[in-house]
Amino acid sequence: ILGSGTMGIGISIAFADAGFEVTIVDPSAEALERGLGLIEKTYEQSAAKGRLTEAQKNERFGNINGAAGYDSLSDVDLVIEAVFEDMDLKKKVFAELDGVCKAGAILASNTSTLDIKEMAAVTKRPEAVIGLHFFSPANIMKLLEIVRTDKTSSEVVVTALKLARQIRKMGVVVGIGSEFGFVGNRMLTMGYMREADQLLLEGASIEQIDRAIYDFGFPMGPWAMNDMAGIDILNSVLESTGAAAANPKPFYNVSRALAALGRYGQKTGSGFYKYEAGDRRPHLDPQVDEIIKQEAAKLGIEARKISDEEIQQRCVYALINEGAKLLDENIVYRAADIDIIWHYGYGFPRYKGGPMFYADLIGVKDIYETICQFHDQFGHYWTPAPLLEKLAQDGTGLLEWTPE
């Protein structure tokens, strides 16, 4: 595992728990020592709570070693890169790994958004390069997006699926399209979060949006979630990929305004909400209301009363529409895979089955007609996915659909 940050630590624990020997590589001795210390602390806490015996704790922590350089990777079967989300840095890492690792070794990236084809292109083994996108915290979250490129061999994909089972993850194979973010994060960013941000500008409050989405069945609303994950992370991805300004009408105006002020969420004590020291409970902040009003004024948007039903429809139907595009683009094999991703990775309410199942439950024709109304009301970015239009005309559901 390359990198001893939050993701590197979580991935290492996931493999060590399954009995694998793990080497964490970090050129910073200080960072490596801190990372190993956090892993040991995690195991000690589990033992103290009775989840592990003392023998199990020692065995699992004993599976993990630290190293400063790549020399120790010459005979490993798999390397997972978990360094900072910067394409130039990742390409440098992959080029170096290609020269060090043995023939047949799989080179994987834990990137959540960046193009793995670019990383593979700097190696002489593009067939052995794959994405293994763990969700944070990686030792707890069950989802693993297995990201294939057009060069990734079938053997490597099947090996990744087997590996997912061995480390007790739900592995879902996805591909790479023209948009960033694979499946889960593309749907999140290009649909769900985009609408939540737009709804703020149009008059819905942060509290109302979070409450409406919680009432729909999610464990938390988009803004509480964003504060927990870090607004700086979302903003960095938006800026590096150009996703915020990918359309004639730029999105994420409120999120970007907060990031510009250093309001990154819980980690800085303020984001969409404000937080007291040592307390993760969110508190409303009038300053954010003013920021929202300023951003709306810049765009000439007048506030109006918005119902909870509209909030739920726009956030969830945006997910469905983007999911239908992914199916049409062959980025994901089947609608049920999208539902698995959204249940295990993002907390979509299990009793509603996932966005694709939920669309079939409501009726694809009704979903399509509502999206057409949103298109008329809000503009081009609500253009219905061609697959939704086709299924609405045929009277069939998304879960019935198979690629031609």
SSE order:
HEHHEEHEHEEHEHHHHHHHHHHH
Compute the gyration radius: what is it? 22 Å
Secondary-structure class: alpha/beta
Biggest sheet, spatial arrangement of strands: 3-4-5-6-7
Low-confidence stretches: none
What's the number of helices?
A: 17
Q: What does the oligomeric state look like here?
A: single chain
Strand portion: 5-15%
- The helix content, as a percent range, equals 40-55%
Main beta sheet, described? 5 strands, mixed
Cα-to-Cα separation, first versus last residue: 39 Å
What is the 3D shape?
Answer: globular
Number of strands: 7
pLDDT average, as an integer? 93
Brief write-up:
With 404 residues, the protein is an alpha/beta fold. It has helices at residues 6-17, 29-48, 54-62, 87-100, 116-121, 154-166, 184-202, 206-216, 222-229, 231-241, 253-260, 286-298, 308-328, 335-346, 355-362, 364-378, 386-394; strands at 22-25, 64-67, 78-81, 106-109, 129-134, 143-147, 170-174. The longest helix has 21 residues, at 308-328.
Structural commentary:
- Helix 7 (184-202) packs antiparallel against helix 13 (308-328), helix 8 packs across helix 13 (308-328) and helix 11 (253-260) packs across helix 12 (286-298).
- The longest helix is centred in the last third of the chain and has 21 residues, at 308-328.
- The protein has 17 helices and 7 strands.
- It is globular, with a radius of gyration of 22 Å.
- It has helices spanning 6-17, 29-48, 54-62, 87-100, 116-121, 154-166, 184-202, 206-216, 222-229, 231-241, 253-260, 286-298, 308-328, 335-346, 355-362, 364-378, 386-394, and strands at 22-25, 64-67, 78-81, 106-109, 129-134, 143-147, 170-174.
- It has 404 residues and is an alpha/beta fold.
- Strands 3-4-5-6-7 form a 5-stranded mixed β-sheet, with helices on both faces.
- The model has no long low-confidence stretch (mean pLDDT 93).
